[in-house]
Amino acid sequence: MIGILFSSFLILLVLGVPIAFAIGLGALVPIILQGNIPLSLVVSRMFGGIDSFPLMAIPFFVLTGTLAGACKLTDRIAALAAFMVGNLRAGLAHVNIVASMLFGGVTGSAVADAAATGSMMIPAMRSQGYPAAYSAAVTAASSVIGSIIPPSTMMIIYGFLTGVSTGRMFVGAIIPGIMVGLALMLVAHFQAIRLGIGYDANAKPRTLSGFWLILKDSGPAMVVPVIIIGGIVGGFFTPTEAGVVAVVTILVLGSIYYRSFTWARLRAAFMTAGYTTAMVMMILAASTVFANLLTRARFQSTLIDMLSTVSSVPEIQMLLVIALLLFLTLFIDATAVLIMFAAPLAAVFSTLGYDPVHSGIVVVVACLIGGVTPPVGTLLFIAAGIARISVGAASRAILPFVLALIAVTLIILFIPPLATWLPSIAFD
């Protein structure tokens, strides 16, 4: 069954069938050919896959991101980032990365991060003489942080599919998210030296009065991640309820404090959030059927046997799994890969003796790297489109950043406390 399942899916993918339909139809082929699985399974699994209270967090966090863009919260976050790191060499590149870290704490979406931050930072970097490919690479790579720094829609999905606590994953991802940001800033610095990029002439000096002005304007936006994490850790609400609180907070800030909402902007924000949620839910529904067939075919046992033939060392086996994920995300959307393989891989990691929160964070970060690698790097496409350059040019520029992302993933893999220390303090 496994061979037919993957073959039909890949053929449909090569033919250009949209990812959600390729997954669903690819799963339908072995069901029809084998004849011993009722077709009702498709319908029941698709609806059952999205009929979940935890998944209700996704549309709320997506809406939080679109509302944040509608009330120009991105500009204010970028201003705060500029005050923090704008005086460094290649300051705008560092501002781009720090802004992604701060914006990720509000939206939880890498795609929203790439679109919102990129549309503002790439033109600003280009106007200051930064190479277009470098600007696009920094934007695409840094937007990965949007789905690592909590809240994270990818971790909500992983937690739902595997039964791992979403709250623990949120807290556990804080240190890895910061590590990714620092690693990208280091690469951006050395790339700036190689390209001859100096200090930004327009960087403003940091003064105490300037700090208070920035804090007054952008500080309230930082209340959102504090409320989300504090509320979940304190047991005041679930991740789903945290999404509702985040939406209400943004609506209050945009309407009363910033006074920047209009009916047109609100309508556009809600429509965009609806389209994005529909796309994610369609992929999730179809991938649930795909994952169920993998479980029926005992894919996890097959994978464990294959890994055991290569090595009996758990760390090496985990490296092979990461390599597999990096390869798959070259050709398949990262969200789809996560949904299809989360449950089987969680069973594999449990057999290998890995902590579920630790292994879950490693898997999510590994899948997110696929967002910046061609030929199906969604984040890379967005950044290249904003910079108005070819994906090939952006791909060459982003290679050092991809290597940095892989290096951080491996560090998290081999040092589990980086992902498990904070959850142990917050929840145990």
Number of strands: 0
Q: How far apart, in Å, are the first and last alpha carbons? A: 42 Å
Which percent band covers the strand fraction? under 5%
Ranges with pLDDT <50 over ≥5 residues?
none
- Largest beta-sheet details: none
Radius of gyration: 21 Å
Tally of separate helices: 22
Q: Provide the helix percentage.
A: over 70%
Counting helices, strands and paired strands, the structural category is: mainly alpha
Number of domains: 1
Shape: globular
Write the element-wise H/E pattern from the N-terminal end onward.
Answer: HHHHHHHHHHHHHHHHHHHHHH
The overall pLDDT average reads 84
Keywords: Cell inner membrane, Cell membrane, Membrane, Transmembrane, Transmembrane helix, Transport
Protein name: TRAP transporter large permease protein
Subunit structure: The complex comprises the extracytoplasmic solute receptor protein and the two transmembrane proteins.
Pfam family, one: DctM
